[in-house]
Write a structure and sequence with these properties.
Number of strands: 4
Distance between the termini: 111 Å
Order of helices and strands: HHHHEHEEEHHHHHHHHH
Helix content: over 70%
Shape: extended
Strand content: under 5%
Radius of gyration: 39 Å
C-alpha cells in the first residue's frame, strides 16, 4: 500500500501539469465570458483531476494486490528515477503524511474557531436584519439568514450553509453608508445562494492532501478568484450600479489602509483585478510569468511523453526475457525501427502511384482514339450546333464570373462595414472607460478638496488660538506692569 500511495503522489504531479495547461486554455479562451461560465469550467477540470487521482490510486492498489511486491510505476520514463521512488517510497509517504496531518490540524483549528464564533456575537439592529430578509427574497431563496456583529472577525464572512450566519465586524454598520453596506450584504448572500461554503470545504480538504502539487494549487486559487467574481456579478445585477459597487470596494480598501482591516478577502492585487474587471467588463487573463511557467510545463510534459514509450517497451522486453530464463537481448533502437518502417511505407506508396499512372495513360489513349473517330463521322450540322453551344456556355461563364466579382465586392463592402462598426464599438468602450476613470478621479478630487478644506479650517483655528494666546500674554504683562507701578 505504501508503494501505491507513493506512485499516486508521483503521477499526480504530471496530472497537475495537464490540469494547469487545461486551466490556462480556459483562462485564455474566456476573456469576455461570464464569470459563472468560467467558474463552472474550472470546477469541471478540478473534478476531472481529482477523479484521475482516485483512479490512479485504484489502479496502483490493484497492481500491488496482484503482484504482492509493490507498485509498478508504469509510465515513468526515467528508469533510474522510478527505481529511486520505489526504494524511498516509505520515506516519501512518511514526509507527505506528516505534512498532510499538520495541514489537517490547521484546517480543523480554523473550523473549531468558526464553531466558537457561532456561540458569540451580538445581533445586528432590527432594521438591517429585516433588510437582509428582503435581499434574500430578491436573490430567490427563503432560507433564514442571521446577521451578527462580532469582535472576532475583521472582514465580513459567511459561516454555515443549512443555517447560515453573516458575521460583520463590530461597529461596521455605523461607519459605512447604507448603499455600500447593502453591496457587502448582497455579496455575502450570493455566497450562500451558490453553496460556496460547501465547495470551499471540499477544496480545503483536497489542498491538505495535495499541498505539494503546484498545478492543482494554482487552479484552486483561480477558482477562489472566480468565486468572488461571480458574487460581484450577482451583487451588481441587483444594485444595477457598477460605479457604486466599485466605490464600495475602494472605500473598504481605504478603511484597511487606515488600520481597520475591512477589505474584501483576497491577495494584494485581487482588489485591483476586480475593479479592472468590473470597469472594463473583461476577465483577467494570464500574466507573462504564468504564460512562461505553463510553457515550461508543456515542454516538460512533451519530453516525458517522447521519452516514455521507448524506455518502457525496452524494460518490458527485458522483463519478459528474464522471466523466460534466457539472457536479455539488446533491443533495437526505436528511431531505427521507425525509419525502416517509414522507408517501407514510402516504397509501397511509390509502387501504387506508378501503377495508377500506367493505368491512366492507357485509358487516356483509348479515349483519344474514340474522340477522333467520332469527330470524323459527325456531319457539319452537328459541328455548327456544338459551336453555338460552346458560345452559349462561354457567355454563361462570363455572366457567372461577373456575378462572382459583384458578390466579392459586396462581401468586401460588408467586411468594411463590420470593421467600421467594430472600431466604433471599441471607441465607445474606450470612451465609457475614460468616463468612469474621470468620475473616479472627480470623486478623489472632491475628497481631497474636503480634506484640504478641513486642513485649512484647522490651521485657521490654530492661528486664532495663537493670536488669543498672544493677547492673553500681552494683557498679563500689562497687568504685571500696572501692579508693579502701584506697589512702587
Amino acid at each position: 500500500m505504501i508503494q501505491a500511495i507513493c506512485w499516486v503522489l508521483v503521477h499526480s504531479l504530471w496530472q497537475g501539469v495537464l490540469l494547469a495547461l487545461a486551466g490556462g486554455g480556459v483562462i485564455l479562451s474566456t476573456k469576455r465570458t461570464a464569470a459563472a461560465v468560467r467558474y463552472r469550467m474550472l470546477c469541471g477540470l478540478l473534478n476531472l483531476f481529482l477523479g484521475g487521482v482516485g483512479l490512479t490510486f485504484f489502479y496502483e492498489s490493484t497492481m500491488v494486490t496482484g503482484s504482492g511486491n509493490g507498485g509498478t510505476g508504469v509510465g515513468v520514463p526515467m528508469n533510474w528515477l522510478g527505481d529511486w521512488f520505489s526504494v524511498h517510497a516509505f520515506q516519501i509517504v512518511a514526509v507527505w503524511l506528516m505534512l498532510a496531518i499538520a495541514k489537517s490540524i490547521r484546517m480543523a483549528t480554523g473550523w473549531g474557531y468558526m464553531r466558537r464564533m457561532r456561540r458569540e456575537g451580538l445581533m445586528a439592529p432590527a432594521l438591517w436584519v429585516g433588510r437582509v430578509d428582503e435581499l434574500s427574497r430578491q436573490l430567490g431563496f427563503r432560507r433564514t439568514v442571521r446577521l451578527v456583529e462580532s469582535a472576532l472577525v475583521r472582514v465580513p464572512i459567511v459561516i454555515g450553509q443549512l443555517r447560515p450566519i453573516i458575521y460583520i465586524p463590530l461597529g461596521l454598520i455605523n461607519h459605512l453608508p447604507a448603499s455600500e453596506m447593502e453591496a457587502v450584504l448582497l455579496h455575502e448572500l450570493a455566497h450562500i445562494r451558490r453553496y460556496d461554503h460547501v465547495v470551499n470545504r471540499v477544496q480545503q480538504a483536497a489542498e491538505c492532501l495535495l499541498f505539494f502539487n503546484p498545478g492543482f494549487l494554482w487552479i484552486s486559487s483561480l477558482l477562489r478568484e472566480e468565486r468572488e467574481n461571480c458574487c460581484d456579478d450577482i451583487a451588481i445585477a441587483h444594485t444595477r450600479d457598477r460605479v457604486e459597487f466599485v466605490r464600495a470596494l475602494v472605500r473598504f480598501k481605504e478603511h484597511s489602509l487606515r488600520g481597520m482591516a475591512l477589505a474584501f478577502p483576497g491577495d494584494k492585487r485581487q482588489l485591483l483585478n476586480r475593479v479592472l474587471r468590473i470597469s472594463r467588463q473583461q476577465n483577467k487573463t494570464l500574466s507573462g510569468r504564468e504564460r512562461l511557467v505553463l510553457l515550461g510545463g508543456c515542454l516538460v510534459l512533451i519530453c516525458l511523453l517522447a521519452a516514455g514509450p521507448a524506455r518502457t517497451d525496452i524494460k518490458k522486453t527485458e522483463l519478459r526475457v528474464e522471466a523466460a530464463g534466457a539472457r536479455p537481448v539488446q533491443a533495437a533502437p526505436a528511431e531505427l525501427v521507425s525509419v525502416l518502417r517509414a522507408r517501407e511505407q514510402v516504397a509501397q506508396n511509390m509502387e501504387w502511384v506508378e501503377a495508377q499512372l500506367i493505368r491512366l495513360h492507357h485509358q487516356s489513349g483509348r479515349k483519344k482514339k474514340k474522340v477522333e473517330v467520332r469527330q470524323v463521322e459527325k456531319p457539319a450540322s452537328n459541328v455548327e450546333q456544338s459551336q453555338a453551344s460552346a458560345q452559349q456556355m462561354q457567355a454563361s461563364a462570363e455572366q457567372v464570373e461577373r456575378n462572382a466579382v459583384h458578390e466579392a465586392q459586396n462581401r468586401e463592402q460588408a467586411e468594411r462595414s463590420l470593421e467600421e462598426a467594430e472600431r466604433d464599438r471599441q471607441q465607445a468602450e474606450r470612451n465609457r472607460e475614460q468616463a468612469l476613470k474621470d468620475r473616479l478621479q472627480a470623486e478623489r478630487d472632491k475628497q481631497q478638496a474636503n480634506r484640504d478644506r478641513l486642513q485649512a479650517e484647522m490651521e485657521r483655528q490654530q492661528a486664532e488660538l495663537e493670536r488669543a494666546k498672544e493677547d492673553l500674554q500681552r494683557k498679563m504683562s500689562e497687568m504685571d506692569r500696572q501692579n508693579s507701578k502701584n506697589n512702587s
